[in-house]
Amino acid sequence: MHNIPTPYYLIDKQALQRNLNIIDYVREHSGAKVLLALKCFATWSVFDMMRKHMDGTTSSSLYEVKLGYQKFGGETHAYSVAYADHEIQEVVANCDKIIFNSINQLERFAQYAKGKPVGLRLNPGVSVAGFDLADPARRFSRLGEGDVERIMAVIDRIDGVMIHNNCENDDFNRFDELLAQVEQRYGHVLERLNWVSLGGGISFTAEGYQVDAFCRRLREFARKYGVQVYLEPGEAAVRHTSTLEVSVLDIGYNGKHLAVVDASTEAHMLDLLIYRETAPLGEAEGEHEYMVCGKTCLAGDIFGEGRFSRPLQVGDRISIGDAAGYTMVKKNWFNGVNMPSIAVKEADGSVRLVREFSFDDYVNSLS
Ligand SMILES: *Cc1c(COP(=O)(O)O)cnc(C)c1O
């Protein structure tokens, strides 16, 4: 093990390279441009590596678009559910394209675009999403415009649309069906555009994904409408690349063997709670089963259950899997728990600490 004190997130560049190779393949065979969705992953220490295989970034806010522009480069898409008056000029200064969420926002702010391409978010009303919370096409959704007539009324003022209606969709056929529904309903809109972003949520780097069929579909779509296609992967770019490295602080038994570690789901891997998931941990074969728990006072602060080859002891280190997407961008100071450092494992196996947090950071996060 490394000497770095736990807790820390560990990004494995070799694992990241595997995803980036698939992204390169998709770019080459589909003609699509691929932008990193910063809301999922914004750990800029590895952007040097990622920018060789991705065309740029997309964003959800002024700060994200600035981060993408300054730290990643390439093509920088600005999007936000709603821009404020005081943000718009800085957003435009830091982007290559600006995408509005509503026709209202388009009408309010398009005049500031300074000749940069303007887009609109299209909400086709259909989606693949397991959770209502994360379903952009849910009832009463505020995410994008869906009415064909209203969109056609402003079609001369937009160059493209962004459609984000997949969430963790690992089935090419469902993606294909969904896109066909979009084409059927919005074909006249698509014909008038220069570019279409198909958003994120497509698990095309997952094992077994029909990558070639996906590329063919994107290429045909691009040709049919005469558009440049963009993809905006977050999770697909960083899945299976990182772990949260923790140490066991206490061991107990209460009907199950418990191991309390020096990190927390709520503070460091929040989506486990939101989406009621458990993290992969332990070894497939081990005989000793433990429930691995966080150290906050939240009763349900549980990372998951795993098997280990020997009984766990105080001081043992554990790797909690799938800790890249929607983790570091969401970490917080709940319970005043020490915030995990960030480390990068290079291709040669060496590990480099790239960020540490201290008591001062905690103090400075409040006043
Ligand atoms: C969240 C989001 C993404 C990235 O989604 P993933 O599921 O992480 O791939 C891309 N585009 C938009 C507009 C988003 O809201």
Structural description of this entry:
By secondary structure, the protein is α/β, with parallel strands linked by helices. Helices cover 28% and strands 22% of the residues. The chain has helices spanning 13-30, 47-50, 62-72, 88-93, 103-109, 148-152, 172-190, 211-225, 235-238, 265-268, 271-274, 359-364, and strands spanning 8-12, 33-37, 56-58, 75-80, 97-100, 118-121, 160-162, 195-197, 228-231, 242-253, 257-261, 288-293, 302-308, 317-320, 341-345, 351-355. Helix 3 (62-72) links the parallel strand 3 (56-58) and strand 4 (75-80). It is globular. The two termini are 38 Å apart.
Keywords:
single chain; 367 residues; alpha/beta; eight-stranded mixed beta sheet; eight-stranded parallel beta barrel; binds pyridoxal-5'-phosphate
Low-confidence residue ranges = none
Distance between the termini: 38 Å
Radius of gyration: 22 Å
Q: Give the helices and strands as they follow along the chain.
A: EHEHEHEHEHEHEHEHEHEEHHEEEEEH
Shape: globular
Estimated share of beta-strand residues:
15-25%
